[in-house]
């Protein structure tokens, strides 16, 4: 740490305290100095306040610009997108940009959600103003410093590629940083006119590419330091089970095992390295009090859900008079859909390293919620939150699993480190991950649709049965209204299809279980889009209409749905003749403020579906990095397709039947279709990119299966249902 | 003590014979570029080369590697094919979360070393043991084809 002392009269925020090497000057603006943005160009920002730029970027005397990320990089390319926003307004030299995850601190609270979180496909739109403002504010300060130094008015200066320019003179930002940090904070800042953007909107290569290609990128799993132990925890084979007793004599004989300690979630084996911890855990004998979950069975559970679906639930949406509309007769569609529990299974198994000291604590973990984890560690250690430093390395995938309000793996790791009395990295095996809960909840949907004389739905009754994700979380207060968790019915209760159907009713039964559930990439939409887009397809076929035309009629007045739908259909040449044995299916769904349509082209080979090609169109409003948007669509299609084809977590005698990638199957290269992504040109309200590509893929594929075989897939995964037919 | 040749250097490691190469590399030799993903040769994140052949280091005991050469992601740029693969990975901007990519690159390098012009079917066969939860498969396929054409 080599911070310049001559700017000490300014208050450094905490962010400056962990600069690693090099002379780095942080701009420092007292917390209290926040200003509302004046002027037209800021109207979109609403009540946004000027950010504290020093929390978001640092300029080194070596001209390096370090951008601090309030969100975690877990594949979605935010490591590149957020710096693009700053670099645009700062006129930075792109090659000088360095990136770090921010610590857990109030400065990084989500601009819309009020806590530090990466989730909801919200990073780009929620930071679009804040990061640009941080860049613009800093540029203003640098210009003022240069004006003072040169004795010219700011108006005589311009900026380009990390330099202030005056005639032939070019002053690198690094030379102005110290002087700029002494200046009074501007009270207003003007953002660039979009027509002047040089970086925003341009396909930009990932800044984290090189280190992820040469093996130097550090993930939580890679944290190592002298004295750090590795722990594995023996957990109950069924959810809710408790340790009755344990015998650690054999475990302690394993070379490299140091200690065995009991923690609330089980018994932890502390060892020099993973291999010793694993062998120690295998040698450990634990007797469990299994409790009532030992009889849990997926088939029985679906039967219970089915029984609930026969009864009235809580009303989530209602319009018109369903009773009269159904009594009026007409063609009736009745269908039941079911979807299983799903594990996130990020490639990097869960892990968390913790070093508890007398009056401080350091935590290293790939997390989507550092503030929440900080509070969880505080609770276990008895330290204050501000005594706990959260280091966030790269996340080897998240998909929601690393954003857990219950902070399960971090809390457990804190208990382990505390009980062991030494720095410990608690590591989960793949089996621990697959069997470890916090799944996408299983759901059962029951729907009844009456078609009018025109073949369009005249009445729609829809009941959902499943667990609430939001219950018991800090989001409960605003996500659960009158007992209805909005995420349980999102994509149905707020469906634009239903808005155009005069009589409809959506009901919800929220179930309880010892199986803990969590948001899984695209949350409720991961099951509702499958059901809605299948039902619309069923209705279209029942009315004898083209499934694309049917959707177009139902989506009247919803131009963004239509734009995505029409673009996908056009690029997939919907309606044109396909080679023999090939069939198409289509789906469109809005989620996280983005509109995605997909056309899947399939064949049936030896009783299994083969997806050859997926044409995807998205309207997510303004796009900051088009290539990372394309990558997210490819990613979402792979993620959603793998789940639709094969993934399932099921229970028998209380135990999860799956354990590793041989029986919890995810998409592999051989099943990956060709993906073509088309972006709807749009300056409309920005939406998300990380999740909205997931929901449409399952119904696009199953709708194609119906076109091919006449068999309606109403249960996921597709598995071997076609072989049985 | 067991002597393992890792990336051209003989290293004396205090390990048991049954310790998988993965943990000898990661936890003992402290080369963390090779990743743990499943522990049962199902995901390919742990792929390294043993005398040039791609192996799943999570299930291969260290004793198997004695007297042979282990190459990991940290050293693959020293290999002409590995270098071409990494360059293609960069040009096509393959990675997302990145966790599986060391293994992907090691598998792709081994594929191209034995089959300089792989078809899509060859790529499916050689690469389907490497899972990527981010779904970078289309770009991996494109990058392998590109590296093949650069090496031709």
Automatic annotation (TrEMBL), chain A:
Superkingdom assignment: Bacteria
Keyword Transmembrane helix carried by entry: yes
Gene3D superfamilies to which the protein is assigned, alphabetical: Aldehyde oxidase/xanthine dehydrogenase, a/b hammerhead, Aldehyde oxidase/xanthine dehydrogenase, molybdopterin binding domain
Cited InterPro entries: Ald_Oxase/Xan_DH_a/b, AldOxase/xan_DH_MoCoBD1, AldOxase/xan_DH_MoCoBD2, AldOxase/xan_DH_Mopterin-bd_sf, N-heterocyclic_Hydroxylase, OxRdtase_Mopterin-bd_su_IorB, TAT_signal
UniProt keyword terms in alphabetical order: Membrane, Transmembrane, Transmembrane helix
Residue stretches making up the Aldehyde oxidase/xanthine dehydrogenase a/b hammerhead domain: 214-292
A molecular function (GO) term: oxidoreductase activity
Protein's UniProt keywords contain Mitochondrion: no
The protein, known as: Xanthine dehydrogenase family protein molybdopterin-binding subunit
Bilayer-crossing regions: 12-32
Source taxonomy: Bacteria, Pseudomonadati, Pseudomonadota, Betaproteobacteria, Nitrosomonadales
From TrEMBL, chain B:
Record key words, sorted: 2Fe-2S, Iron, Iron-sulfur, Metal-binding, Oxidoreductase
Transmembrane segments: none
Domain 2Fe-2S ferredoxin-type: 1-76
CDD domains (alphabetical): fer2 (cd00207)
Cross-referenced Pfam families: Fer2, Fer2_2
Annotated signal peptide: none
InterPro entries: 2Fe-2S-bd, 2Fe-2S-bd_dom_sf, 2Fe-2S_ferredoxin-like_sf, 2Fe-2S_ferredoxin-type, 2Fe2S_fd_BS, Beta-grasp_dom_sf, Diverse_Oxidoreductases
GO molecular function per UniProt: 2 iron, 2 sulfur cluster binding; metal ion binding; oxidoreductase activity
Protein name: (2Fe-2S)-binding protein
Species whose genome carries this gene: Pseudomethylobacillus aquaticus
